[in-house]
Amino acid sequence: MRSIEGHIAAIKEKKKGDREAIAKETMALYKEHGINPFSGCLTAFIQLPIIIALYFVFLKGLVHQEGVLYQFVKFPDHIDMVFLGLIDLARKSLILAVFAGAAQYLQSAYTMPKQKESLGGKASFTEEFSRSMNMQMRYFIPVLIGFVAYTTSAAVAIYFIVSSIFAIVQEYFVRKEHNNSTTAPAVLS
Q1: pLDDT at position 98, please?
Q2: Where on the phi/psi map is residue 155: left (φ > 0), alpha (ψ -120 to 50), or beta?
Q3: Of the candidates 85, 110, 92, 83, the residue with the CA atom closest to the CA atom of residue 146
Q4: More confident residue, 14 or 68
Q5: How many structural domains compose the chain?
Q6: Residue 114 belongs to what domain range?
Q7: Each residue of 166-178: pLDDT tens digit?
Q8: Is residue 22 a part of any domain in this protein?
Q9: Does residue 189 surpass a pLDDT of 50?
């Protein structure tokens, strides 16, 4: 997406005011570059069942039911819910909730593009809407993640922290690869 930001800005400048033409040309550009604009939604839908499963496993614990496990798998006599000997995964953790919110903020600050100031002084509706959404994603979502992490078990908070750290590391390597590919010298044939 970052590689075609300049093309999208040129389309918006060229077709200023004609939303339908901008949308058509933008979708054609996505198709040309093999980009699915809705691919980011898929990860949210994949994560939701994982978060719900973590919540219910640590809320109720594992209950031994006949026939759930294979006969050759022995049900454990005792399950220790303490992570690294420090944190009880079944309880709330304010510290982990704060870390989850902070990790989400760092992720959004690192992965979201910087908003440019409008040159003419007065911004259009779409620029204002984009700026508003950016602010919500940057500040409200980390607070929401921190709240959810605090109101549920510490296992969910750890999941949020790990997934945010993974996203930051992934973005770092993607940017590094992108920078290497754009600055590589052209080979003459």
Answers
A1: 93
A2: alpha
A3: 92
A4: 14
A5: 1
A6: 73-181
A7: 988 988 888 888 7
A8: no
A9: no
| Average pLDDT, integer, range 159-164 | 89
Among residues 131, 128, 127, which one has the least CA distance to residue 112?
Answer: 131
115 inside domain:
yes
Exposure string (b/e) for 147-161, b if CB count within 10 Å is 16 or more?
A: ebbbebbbbbbbbbb
Strands 82-83 and 87-88: antiparallel
The tokens for 174 are 């993607």
> Is 85 a domain residue?
yes
Rounded to an integer, what is the distance from CA 178 to the centroid of its chain?
Answer: 19
Model confidence at 180, in pLDDT bands (50, 70, 90)?
Answer: confident
Given a contact cutoff of 8 angstroms between Cβ atoms, the answer to whether 137 and 178 are in contact is: no
Residue 134: both structure tokens together = 């950016």
**In whole angstroms, what is the distance from residue 165 CA to residue 153 CA?**
19
**What is the average pLDDT across 71-97?**
76
Is position 41 within any domain?
A: no
